[in-house]
Give the backbone structure.
Amino acid sequence: MYPVLKKIAVTAVVSSVLFTSACFAEDSAGNKAADGNRITIGGMSSPDSNLSPLSDDALMLSQWAVGETLTRLDEDNVAQPLLAQSWEQIDETTWRFTIRDGVKFHDGTELTAQQAADALNFANTASPQPRVLDSVDYTFSADGTDVIVESAQPDPLVAEMLSSPNLMILAEAAYGDGTIDPIGHGTGPFELVAVDGNSSATMEAFDDYWGEPAALAGFEAQFIPDPTARSAAVRTGTDVVTSLSPTTLTEVDPERIVEVATARTTTLHFNTDSGVFSDPAMRTAAAEAIDTSTLVDTVFEGYGDVAEGFFGPALPWAQPLRSEDDYTKELEKRVPAASPEDVKGTEITLATYTDRAELPELAVRIEQYLEDAGFVVTQEVRDYDYIEQDAFDGKFDLFILSRNTILDSGDPVAFLTSDYGCDGSYNLSLFCDPEVDQLIDTAASTEVGPDRQKAIMDVEAALLSRLASLPLVNEVGLNGESDRVNGVVHDPLSRRLITESTTTTASNQ
Protein backbone atom coordinates (compact mmCIF):
# COMPACT_ATOMS: atom_id res chain seq x y z
CA MET A 1 0.00 0.00 0.00
CA TYR A 2 1.32 3.40 -0.92
CA PRO A 3 1.17 6.13 1.76
CA VAL A 4 -1.80 8.45 1.90
CA LEU A 5 -0.84 11.52 -0.10
CA LYS A 6 -3.42 13.99 1.21
CA LYS A 7 -5.65 13.91 4.29
CA ILE A 8 -6.42 17.58 4.62
CA ALA A 9 -9.61 19.46 5.35
CA VAL A 10 -9.81 22.72 3.49
CA THR A 11 -12.24 25.56 3.26
CA ALA A 12 -13.84 26.38 -0.02
CA VAL A 13 -11.42 27.08 -2.78
CA VAL A 14 -13.15 28.50 -5.73
CA SER A 15 -12.65 29.99 -8.98
CA SER A 16 -12.72 33.21 -10.68
CA VAL A 17 -13.95 35.19 -13.47
CA LEU A 18 -12.72 36.82 -16.59
CA PHE A 19 -15.50 39.25 -17.17
CA THR A 20 -17.82 42.27 -16.40
CA SER A 21 -21.30 43.48 -15.42
CA ALA A 22 -23.61 46.18 -14.26
CA CYS A 23 -24.64 46.39 -10.61
CA PHE A 24 -28.01 44.90 -9.82
CA ALA A 25 -30.76 46.93 -8.17
CA GLU A 26 -32.87 44.15 -6.75
CA ASP A 27 -32.30 42.03 -3.62
CA SER A 28 -30.08 38.98 -4.09
CA ALA A 29 -29.78 35.55 -2.51
CA GLY A 30 -29.36 35.23 1.24
CA ASN A 31 -29.13 38.25 3.53
CA LYS A 32 -26.66 40.19 1.43
CA ALA A 33 -27.29 43.74 0.27
CA ALA A 34 -28.08 44.38 -3.37
CA ASP A 35 -26.10 47.04 -5.21
CA GLY A 36 -23.19 47.53 -2.82
CA ASN A 37 -22.38 43.85 -2.50
CA ARG A 38 -22.28 42.97 -6.17
CA ILE A 39 -19.43 43.60 -8.56
CA THR A 40 -18.90 43.94 -12.28
CA ILE A 41 -16.20 41.99 -14.07
CA GLY A 42 -15.04 41.81 -17.68
CA GLY A 43 -12.65 39.82 -19.83
CA MET A 44 -11.62 38.69 -23.27
CA SER A 45 -13.46 35.50 -24.16
CA SER A 46 -17.04 34.61 -24.91
CA PRO A 47 -18.28 31.01 -24.83
CA ASP A 48 -17.27 28.97 -27.86
CA SER A 49 -19.08 25.76 -26.91
CA ASN A 50 -22.17 26.75 -24.91
CA LEU A 51 -20.10 26.68 -21.71
CA SER A 52 -19.43 22.95 -21.99
CA PRO A 53 -16.82 21.95 -19.40
CA LEU A 54 -15.35 19.59 -21.99
CA SER A 55 -14.17 22.61 -23.99
CA ASP A 56 -12.00 25.62 -23.23
CA ASP A 57 -15.18 27.20 -21.83
CA ALA A 58 -14.51 25.14 -18.69
CA LEU A 59 -12.06 27.79 -17.64
CA MET A 60 -14.89 30.31 -17.38
CA LEU A 61 -16.95 28.07 -15.11
CA SER A 62 -13.90 27.55 -12.93
CA GLN A 63 -13.07 31.24 -12.90
CA TRP A 64 -16.64 32.10 -11.98
CA ALA A 65 -16.50 29.77 -8.93
CA VAL A 66 -19.40 27.82 -10.42
CA GLY A 67 -17.87 24.40 -11.08
CA GLU A 68 -15.37 22.43 -9.00
CA THR A 69 -13.10 19.45 -9.49
CA LEU A 70 -11.93 16.64 -7.22
CA THR A 71 -8.65 18.43 -6.57
CA ARG A 72 -7.18 21.89 -6.99
CA LEU A 73 -3.62 23.14 -7.41
CA ASP A 74 -1.81 25.24 -4.82
CA GLU A 75 0.76 27.94 -5.55
CA ASP A 76 3.38 25.25 -6.21
CA ASN A 77 1.03 23.42 -8.62
CA VAL A 78 0.69 20.52 -6.20
CA ALA A 79 -2.74 18.89 -5.84
CA GLN A 80 -4.84 19.78 -2.79
CA PRO A 81 -8.30 18.54 -1.73
CA LEU A 82 -11.48 20.06 -3.13
CA LEU A 83 -14.47 17.77 -3.83
CA ALA A 84 -12.22 14.87 -2.86
CA GLN A 85 -11.33 15.28 0.81
CA SER A 86 -8.41 12.85 0.63
CA TRP A 87 -6.77 10.24 -1.58
CA GLU A 88 -4.21 7.50 -1.61
CA GLN A 89 -2.22 5.68 -4.25
CA ILE A 90 -2.95 1.96 -4.02
CA ASP A 91 -0.30 0.80 -6.49
CA GLU A 92 1.56 2.18 -9.50
CA THR A 93 -1.59 2.52 -11.58
CA THR A 94 -4.47 2.73 -9.07
CA TRP A 95 -5.65 5.67 -6.98
CA ARG A 96 -8.55 5.99 -4.51
CA PHE A 97 -10.23 9.40 -4.00
CA THR A 98 -12.64 9.80 -1.07
CA ILE A 99 -15.53 12.15 -1.86
CA ARG A 100 -16.26 14.98 0.56
CA ASP A 101 -19.44 14.62 2.66
CA GLY A 102 -22.20 17.20 2.58
CA VAL A 103 -21.67 18.65 -0.88
CA LYS A 104 -24.80 19.75 -2.71
CA PHE A 105 -25.19 20.64 -6.35
CA HIS A 106 -26.96 23.87 -7.19
CA ASP A 107 -30.11 21.88 -8.08
CA GLY A 108 -30.27 20.49 -4.53
CA THR A 109 -29.05 16.96 -5.27
CA GLU A 110 -26.13 15.54 -3.31
CA LEU A 111 -22.67 14.72 -4.60
CA THR A 112 -21.89 11.00 -4.51
CA ALA A 113 -18.93 8.97 -5.64
CA GLN A 114 -21.13 7.42 -8.32
CA GLN A 115 -22.06 10.81 -9.77
CA ALA A 116 -18.42 11.92 -9.69
CA ALA A 117 -17.36 8.76 -11.53
CA ASP A 118 -20.21 9.17 -14.04
CA ALA A 119 -19.18 12.77 -14.75
CA LEU A 120 -15.57 11.73 -15.29
CA ASN A 121 -16.64 8.86 -17.55
CA PHE A 122 -18.80 11.23 -19.59
CA ALA A 123 -15.68 13.30 -20.25
CA ASN A 124 -13.58 10.20 -20.87
CA THR A 125 -15.91 8.84 -23.55
CA ALA A 126 -16.68 12.17 -25.22
CA SER A 127 -15.72 12.71 -28.86
CA PRO A 128 -13.52 14.57 -29.02
CA GLN A 129 -12.10 14.02 -25.57
CA PRO A 130 -11.12 17.09 -23.57
CA ARG A 131 -7.46 17.92 -24.02
CA VAL A 132 -6.51 16.78 -20.51
CA LEU A 133 -7.45 13.20 -21.40
CA ASP A 134 -6.19 12.94 -24.96
CA SER A 135 -2.71 11.75 -23.99
CA VAL A 136 -3.62 9.46 -21.07
CA ASP A 137 -5.64 6.28 -20.63
CA TYR A 138 -7.75 6.40 -17.46
CA THR A 139 -10.78 4.46 -16.22
CA PHE A 140 -13.11 5.75 -13.50
CA SER A 141 -15.41 3.77 -11.20
CA ALA A 142 -17.23 4.22 -7.88
CA ASP A 143 -16.59 2.11 -4.79
CA GLY A 144 -18.83 3.22 -1.94
CA THR A 145 -17.81 6.77 -1.06
CA ASP A 146 -14.68 6.59 -3.20
CA VAL A 147 -13.79 7.14 -6.84
CA ILE A 148 -11.24 4.67 -8.18
CA VAL A 149 -8.94 5.95 -10.93
CA GLU A 150 -6.86 3.45 -12.87
CA SER A 151 -4.25 4.44 -15.43
CA ALA A 152 -2.94 2.21 -18.19
CA GLN A 153 0.60 3.34 -17.41
CA PRO A 154 2.18 4.58 -14.17
CA ASP A 155 1.29 8.25 -13.90
CA PRO A 156 2.61 10.40 -11.03
CA LEU A 157 0.26 13.26 -11.94
CA VAL A 158 -3.17 11.65 -11.55
CA ALA A 159 -4.18 13.93 -8.66
CA GLU A 160 -2.93 17.01 -10.52
CA MET A 161 -4.68 15.99 -13.74
CA LEU A 162 -7.99 15.77 -11.88
CA SER A 163 -7.69 19.49 -11.08
CA SER A 164 -8.31 20.36 -14.73
CA PRO A 165 -11.48 22.45 -15.18
CA ASN A 166 -12.39 20.06 -18.01
CA LEU A 167 -12.98 17.43 -15.31
CA MET A 168 -15.33 19.44 -13.09
CA ILE A 169 -18.15 17.47 -11.52
CA LEU A 170 -21.70 18.60 -12.33
CA ALA A 171 -25.10 17.26 -11.24
CA GLU A 172 -26.63 14.30 -13.05
CA ALA A 173 -29.24 16.54 -14.68
CA ALA A 174 -26.49 18.48 -16.45
CA TYR A 175 -25.63 15.57 -18.72
CA GLY A 176 -27.87 15.03 -21.74
CA ASP A 177 -27.47 13.21 -25.02
CA GLY A 178 -23.89 14.24 -25.75
CA THR A 179 -24.40 17.71 -24.26
CA ILE A 180 -23.76 19.33 -20.89
CA ASP A 181 -25.79 22.15 -19.35
CA PRO A 182 -23.91 23.84 -16.47
CA ILE A 183 -26.71 26.29 -15.56
CA GLY A 184 -27.84 25.45 -12.02
CA HIS A 185 -25.73 22.27 -11.87
CA GLY A 186 -22.39 23.17 -10.28
CA THR A 187 -21.10 22.84 -6.70
CA GLY A 188 -19.26 26.15 -6.25
CA PRO A 189 -20.09 29.10 -3.98
CA PHE A 190 -21.71 30.84 -6.95
CA GLU A 191 -24.51 29.45 -9.10
CA LEU A 192 -24.67 30.21 -12.80
CA VAL A 193 -28.30 31.32 -13.21
CA ALA A 194 -28.41 32.84 -16.70
CA VAL A 195 -26.40 33.29 -19.89
CA ASP A 196 -27.22 36.03 -22.37
CA GLY A 197 -25.71 34.68 -25.59
CA ASN A 198 -22.25 36.07 -26.25
CA SER A 199 -22.95 39.10 -24.07
CA SER A 200 -22.94 38.12 -20.40
CA ALA A 201 -23.52 35.54 -17.68
CA THR A 202 -25.07 36.03 -14.25
CA MET A 203 -23.94 34.41 -11.01
CA GLU A 204 -25.72 34.36 -7.62
CA ALA A 205 -24.31 33.26 -4.27
CA PHE A 206 -25.30 29.66 -3.42
CA ASP A 207 -26.64 29.49 0.14
CA ASP A 208 -26.00 25.74 0.58
CA TYR A 209 -22.35 25.81 -0.43
CA TRP A 210 -20.34 23.19 1.44
CA GLY A 211 -17.55 25.59 2.42
CA GLU A 212 -17.42 29.14 3.65
CA PRO A 213 -20.36 31.15 2.25
CA ALA A 214 -19.66 33.66 -0.48
CA ALA A 215 -19.13 37.21 0.77
CA LEU A 216 -20.55 38.67 -2.43
CA ALA A 217 -24.24 38.50 -3.29
CA GLY A 218 -23.29 37.74 -6.86
CA PHE A 219 -21.88 39.24 -10.02
CA GLU A 220 -22.40 39.50 -13.74
CA ALA A 221 -19.66 38.55 -16.18
CA GLN A 222 -19.69 40.32 -19.51
CA PHE A 223 -17.68 39.16 -22.50
CA ILE A 224 -15.54 41.91 -24.06
CA PRO A 225 -13.47 40.53 -26.96
CA ASP A 226 -12.25 43.95 -28.15
CA PRO A 227 -9.09 45.03 -26.26
CA THR A 228 -9.87 48.72 -26.59
CA ALA A 229 -13.32 48.12 -25.12
CA ARG A 230 -11.79 46.27 -22.18
CA SER A 231 -9.60 49.25 -21.37
CA ALA A 232 -12.64 51.51 -21.71
CA ALA A 233 -14.49 49.28 -19.25
CA VAL A 234 -11.79 49.95 -16.66
CA ARG A 235 -12.16 53.69 -17.16
CA THR A 236 -15.94 53.59 -16.90
CA GLY A 237 -16.12 51.75 -13.59
CA THR A 238 -16.07 48.01 -14.18
CA ASP A 239 -14.71 46.52 -10.96
CA VAL A 240 -12.38 43.86 -12.36
CA VAL A 241 -11.25 43.55 -15.99
CA THR A 242 -8.75 40.88 -17.00
CA SER A 243 -6.66 40.36 -20.14
CA LEU A 244 -5.87 44.01 -20.72
CA SER A 245 -3.58 44.62 -23.67
CA PRO A 246 -0.44 46.69 -23.04
CA THR A 247 -1.11 48.50 -26.32
CA THR A 248 -4.40 50.00 -25.05
CA LEU A 249 -3.47 51.38 -21.62
CA THR A 250 -2.71 54.98 -22.54
CA GLU A 251 -5.83 56.41 -20.91
CA VAL A 252 -6.13 53.92 -18.03
CA ASP A 253 -5.32 55.14 -14.52
CA PRO A 254 -2.00 53.44 -13.59
CA GLU A 255 -3.29 53.00 -10.04
CA ARG A 256 -5.88 50.56 -11.36
CA ILE A 257 -3.45 48.36 -13.30
CA VAL A 258 -2.35 45.17 -11.55
CA GLU A 259 0.38 42.93 -12.96
CA VAL A 260 -0.23 39.19 -12.68
CA ALA A 261 2.45 36.55 -13.15
CA THR A 262 1.40 34.15 -15.88
CA ALA A 263 2.53 30.92 -17.45
CA ARG A 264 2.04 32.44 -20.90
CA THR A 265 4.92 32.89 -23.34
CA THR A 266 4.92 34.54 -26.76
CA THR A 267 6.96 32.36 -29.09
CA LEU A 268 8.14 32.50 -32.69
CA HIS A 269 7.53 29.08 -34.24
CA PHE A 270 9.72 27.97 -37.14
CA ASN A 271 8.36 25.58 -39.74
CA THR A 272 11.08 23.01 -39.10
CA ASP A 273 9.57 20.43 -41.45
CA SER A 274 9.83 22.14 -44.83
CA GLY A 275 11.01 25.30 -46.51
CA VAL A 276 13.66 27.78 -45.42
CA PHE A 277 13.65 26.96 -41.72
CA SER A 278 14.04 23.23 -42.09
CA ASP A 279 17.70 24.32 -42.16
CA PRO A 280 18.80 24.92 -38.54
CA ALA A 281 21.44 27.42 -39.70
CA MET A 282 18.70 29.61 -41.14
CA ARG A 283 16.78 29.31 -37.87
CA THR A 284 19.82 30.54 -35.98
CA ALA A 285 20.25 33.45 -38.38
CA ALA A 286 16.65 34.52 -37.83
CA ALA A 287 16.89 34.13 -34.05
CA GLU A 288 20.06 36.19 -33.83
CA ALA A 289 18.44 39.00 -35.82
CA ILE A 290 15.70 39.60 -33.25
CA ASP A 291 16.20 41.96 -30.29
CA THR A 292 13.78 40.55 -27.71
CA SER A 293 14.66 43.16 -25.10
CA THR A 294 13.46 45.94 -27.36
CA LEU A 295 10.30 43.99 -28.14
CA VAL A 296 9.47 43.84 -24.42
CA ASP A 297 10.10 47.56 -23.97
CA THR A 298 8.17 48.69 -27.04
CA VAL A 299 5.40 46.30 -28.05
CA PHE A 300 4.72 45.12 -24.50
CA GLU A 301 5.32 48.54 -22.91
CA GLY A 302 7.69 46.91 -20.43
CA TYR A 303 5.01 44.49 -19.15
CA GLY A 304 6.85 41.20 -19.50
CA ASP A 305 10.26 39.57 -19.30
CA VAL A 306 12.73 38.65 -22.01
CA ALA A 307 12.23 34.92 -22.42
CA GLU A 308 15.31 32.85 -21.66
CA GLY A 309 13.17 29.78 -22.19
CA PHE A 310 9.58 28.63 -22.39
CA PHE A 311 8.92 28.90 -18.65
CA GLY A 312 8.82 32.31 -16.98
CA PRO A 313 8.47 33.53 -13.39
CA ALA A 314 5.28 31.53 -12.86
CA LEU A 315 7.63 28.52 -12.53
CA PRO A 316 10.27 29.95 -10.16
CA TRP A 317 12.28 26.72 -10.12
CA ALA A 318 13.06 26.95 -13.85
CA GLN A 319 15.50 29.87 -13.89
CA PRO A 320 18.10 28.43 -11.44
CA LEU A 321 18.28 25.21 -13.46
CA ARG A 322 19.32 27.18 -16.55
CA SER A 323 22.71 27.71 -14.88
CA GLU A 324 23.39 23.98 -14.55
CA ASP A 325 26.31 22.62 -16.61
CA ASP A 326 24.18 20.11 -18.51
CA TYR A 327 21.81 22.87 -19.59
CA THR A 328 24.46 25.33 -20.75
CA LYS A 329 26.44 22.63 -22.56
CA GLU A 330 23.32 21.61 -24.48
CA LEU A 331 22.76 25.20 -25.62
CA GLU A 332 26.32 25.28 -26.98
CA LYS A 333 25.29 22.63 -29.52
CA ARG A 334 23.17 25.12 -31.47
CA VAL A 335 24.11 25.18 -35.16
CA PRO A 336 25.92 28.43 -36.16
CA ALA A 337 23.97 30.98 -38.16
CA ALA A 338 23.88 30.90 -41.94
CA SER A 339 26.05 33.54 -43.56
CA PRO A 340 24.57 36.93 -44.58
CA GLU A 341 25.19 35.92 -48.18
CA ASP A 342 23.04 32.81 -47.75
CA VAL A 343 20.30 34.79 -46.02
CA LYS A 344 20.17 37.72 -48.44
CA GLY A 345 17.06 37.67 -50.61
CA THR A 346 15.52 34.60 -48.95
CA GLU A 347 11.74 34.91 -49.12
CA ILE A 348 9.74 33.88 -46.07
CA THR A 349 6.16 34.20 -44.80
CA LEU A 350 5.52 35.44 -41.24
CA ALA A 351 2.04 34.87 -39.79
CA THR A 352 0.13 35.71 -36.65
CA TYR A 353 -3.42 36.53 -35.53
CA THR A 354 -5.47 39.51 -34.43
CA ASP A 355 -7.13 38.06 -31.31
CA ARG A 356 -4.35 39.43 -29.12
CA ALA A 357 -3.82 43.11 -29.90
CA GLU A 358 -0.06 43.11 -29.42
CA LEU A 359 0.71 40.32 -31.88
CA PRO A 360 0.18 42.21 -35.17
CA GLU A 361 2.45 44.99 -33.89
CA LEU A 362 4.96 42.36 -32.80
CA ALA A 363 4.90 40.92 -36.32
CA VAL A 364 5.72 44.33 -37.79
CA ARG A 365 8.75 44.68 -35.52
CA ILE A 366 9.99 41.16 -36.21
CA GLU A 367 9.55 41.67 -39.95
CA GLN A 368 11.83 44.71 -39.73
CA TYR A 369 14.50 42.78 -37.84
CA LEU A 370 14.41 39.93 -40.34
CA GLU A 371 14.52 42.23 -43.35
CA ASP A 372 17.48 44.06 -41.83
CA ALA A 373 19.18 40.64 -41.73
CA GLY A 374 18.48 40.07 -45.44
CA PHE A 375 15.24 38.07 -45.44
CA VAL A 376 12.37 39.19 -47.66
CA VAL A 377 9.25 38.96 -45.50
CA THR A 378 5.58 38.65 -46.44
CA GLN A 379 3.05 38.89 -43.61
CA GLU A 380 -0.23 37.01 -43.08
CA VAL A 381 -2.42 38.32 -40.24
CA ARG A 382 -5.94 36.99 -39.65
CA ASP A 383 -8.37 36.05 -36.92
CA TYR A 384 -7.05 32.93 -35.17
CA ASP A 385 -9.95 30.74 -36.25
CA TYR A 386 -9.10 31.47 -39.88
CA ILE A 387 -5.35 30.97 -39.68
CA GLU A 388 -4.82 28.04 -37.31
CA GLN A 389 -5.29 25.24 -39.84
CA ASP A 390 -2.97 26.85 -42.37
CA ALA A 391 -0.32 27.04 -39.65
CA PHE A 392 -0.71 23.35 -38.83
CA ASP A 393 -0.56 22.57 -42.56
CA GLY A 394 2.86 24.23 -42.79
CA LYS A 395 1.81 27.07 -45.08
CA PHE A 396 3.91 29.63 -43.19
CA ASP A 397 7.62 29.77 -42.47
CA LEU A 398 7.14 31.56 -39.15
CA PHE A 399 4.17 31.81 -36.79
CA ILE A 400 3.90 34.01 -33.70
CA LEU A 401 1.85 32.44 -30.91
CA SER A 402 0.93 33.39 -27.35
CA ARG A 403 0.64 30.13 -25.43
CA ASN A 404 0.04 28.95 -21.87
CA THR A 405 2.96 26.65 -21.08
CA ILE A 406 1.32 25.04 -18.05
CA LEU A 407 -1.73 23.22 -19.28
CA ASP A 408 -4.27 21.02 -17.54
CA SER A 409 -2.18 19.39 -14.82
CA GLY A 410 -0.21 22.48 -13.82
CA ASP A 411 2.85 20.65 -15.11
CA PRO A 412 4.86 21.65 -18.23
CA VAL A 413 5.23 18.11 -19.57
CA ALA A 414 1.76 18.24 -21.15
CA PHE A 415 2.76 21.41 -23.01
CA LEU A 416 6.06 19.89 -24.17
CA THR A 417 4.28 16.75 -25.38
CA SER A 418 1.54 18.54 -27.31
CA ASP A 419 3.71 21.29 -28.80
CA TYR A 420 7.00 19.51 -29.52
CA GLY A 421 6.40 15.76 -29.47
CA CYS A 422 6.46 13.97 -32.82
CA ASP A 423 2.79 13.06 -32.30
CA GLY A 424 1.93 16.30 -30.53
CA SER A 425 -1.59 17.61 -31.04
CA TYR A 426 -0.49 21.28 -31.10
CA ASN A 427 2.85 21.07 -32.88
CA LEU A 428 2.91 24.36 -34.81
CA SER A 429 6.65 24.01 -35.41
CA LEU A 430 6.02 20.66 -37.13
CA PHE A 431 9.00 19.53 -35.08
CA CYS A 432 10.00 15.90 -34.65
CA ASP A 433 13.17 14.59 -33.06
CA PRO A 434 13.30 11.09 -31.53
CA GLU A 435 15.91 12.19 -29.00
CA VAL A 436 13.64 14.97 -27.77
CA ASP A 437 10.71 12.55 -27.64
CA GLN A 438 12.78 10.31 -25.39
CA LEU A 439 13.59 13.23 -23.10
CA ILE A 440 9.89 14.10 -22.92
CA ASP A 441 9.03 10.49 -22.06
CA THR A 442 11.64 10.52 -19.29
CA ALA A 443 10.20 13.71 -17.83
CA ALA A 444 6.66 12.32 -18.02
CA SER A 445 7.56 9.20 -16.06
CA THR A 446 9.55 10.96 -13.33
CA GLU A 447 7.93 11.54 -9.94
CA VAL A 448 6.89 15.07 -9.00
CA GLY A 449 9.78 16.96 -7.43
CA PRO A 450 13.32 18.15 -8.22
CA ASP A 451 14.15 15.20 -10.49
CA ARG A 452 11.10 15.90 -12.65
CA GLN A 453 11.98 19.60 -12.78
CA LYS A 454 15.50 18.72 -13.95
CA ALA A 455 14.09 16.39 -16.62
CA ILE A 456 11.75 19.13 -17.86
CA MET A 457 14.63 21.56 -18.19
CA ASP A 458 16.60 18.93 -20.12
CA VAL A 459 13.78 19.01 -22.67
CA GLU A 460 13.78 22.81 -22.79
CA ALA A 461 17.54 22.91 -23.38
CA ALA A 462 17.26 20.35 -26.19
CA LEU A 463 14.50 22.35 -27.88
CA LEU A 464 16.44 25.60 -27.60
CA SER A 465 19.65 24.07 -28.91
CA ARG A 466 17.73 22.81 -31.94
CA LEU A 467 15.70 26.05 -32.19
CA ALA A 468 12.43 24.17 -32.54
CA SER A 469 11.04 27.61 -31.79
CA LEU A 470 12.24 30.88 -30.29
CA PRO A 471 10.66 32.05 -27.00
CA LEU A 472 10.36 35.84 -27.15
CA VAL A 473 8.53 37.16 -24.10
CA ASN A 474 7.37 35.64 -20.82
CA GLU A 475 4.13 37.57 -20.56
CA VAL A 476 2.64 39.43 -17.62
CA GLY A 477 -1.13 39.46 -17.26
CA LEU A 478 -2.74 42.84 -16.75
CA ASN A 479 -5.89 43.43 -14.74
CA GLY A 480 -7.80 46.63 -14.15
CA GLU A 481 -9.17 46.57 -10.60
CA SER A 482 -11.33 48.91 -8.54
CA ASP A 483 -10.18 49.83 -5.04
CA ARG A 484 -13.63 48.91 -3.72
CA VAL A 485 -12.96 45.20 -4.34
CA ASN A 486 -10.75 43.05 -2.10
CA GLY A 487 -9.64 39.45 -2.39
CA VAL A 488 -9.23 39.17 -6.14
CA VAL A 489 -7.02 36.15 -6.83
CA HIS A 490 -4.08 36.61 -9.20
CA ASP A 491 -3.65 33.07 -10.44
CA PRO A 492 -0.86 32.29 -12.95
CA LEU A 493 -3.02 29.47 -14.32
CA SER A 494 -6.04 31.80 -14.72
CA ARG A 495 -8.29 29.28 -13.00
CA ARG A 496 -9.30 31.59 -10.15
CA LEU A 497 -10.15 35.26 -9.86
CA ILE A 498 -13.28 35.77 -7.74
CA THR A 499 -13.67 33.41 -4.78
CA GLU A 500 -15.95 33.02 -1.79
CA SER A 501 -13.57 35.35 0.04
CA THR A 502 -13.78 38.20 -2.47
CA THR A 503 -15.45 41.22 -0.86
CA THR A 504 -16.41 44.81 -1.53
CA THR A 505 -15.99 47.78 0.76
CA ALA A 506 -19.78 47.61 1.24
CA SER A 507 -19.66 44.00 2.44
CA ASN A 508 -16.89 44.88 4.91
CA GLN A 509 -18.95 47.62 6.57
Observations:
- DSSP finds 14 helices and 20 strands in the chain.
